[in-house]
Automatic annotation (TrEMBL):
Residues 3-92 form the H repeat-associated protein N-terminal domain. This is DDE_Tnp_1-associated. InterPro entries: Transposase_11-like (IPR051698), YbfD_N (IPR032806). It comes from Nitrosomonas communis. It comes from the Bacteria. It holds the Pfam family DDE_Tnp_1_assoc.
Length: 144
């Protein structure tokens, strides 16, 4: 999120409930998780639990963290300066991708690993090609 703070927010100040770095971080995470399109991104964001929403620094209201809607996500992504976004992503890659020239991002559905509602467990991993270092591995928890 730190590198996204350098991007100018092109949205009007009126009615802004969600910070641009939060929207960009949520969108980037959803895309890394394999989501394609505004609807998929928004559904993935909506599926996040309260703890994950807190980590993305979502807006807190009545003890619960709120996430942006599909319209808010779309409008922010359409309006953001692509050059500034590219610079922010390159800065992130320079800071955190220094061990590896490329990363493998992979998602798996775990066979026979069911939650309390009988849904399968999904896991995403980010692994460096050169180092073999696992940068992150996260379980996707359904919100419903």
């Amino acid at each position: 999120m730190i590198t996204f703070k350098a991007i100018d927010d092109p949205r009007r100040t009126q009615g802004k409930k969600h910070q641009l770095p939060t929207i960009l971080s949520l969108s980037a995470a959803a895309i890394l998780y394999g989501m394609r399109g505004y609807k998929d991104i928004a559904l993935w964001v909506q599926s996040l639990g309260n703890k994950a929403r807190s980590r993305f620094r979502c807006r807190k209201r009545n003890g619960r963290y709120e996430v942006p809607s599909r319209t808010v996500i779309r409008n922010a992504l359409v309006k953001v300066d692509p050059e500034q976004l590219n610079q922010a992503l390159n800065t992130w890659n320079t800071q955190y991708g220094y061990l590896d020239e490329s990363l493998a991002i992979d998602g798996k559905t775990m066979c026979n690993a069911l939650d309390g509602q009988g849904r399968q467990t999904h896991i995403m991993s980010v692994i460096g090609h050169e180092s073999g270092h696992c940068y992150t591995q996260k379980k996707w928890e359904h919100s419903r």
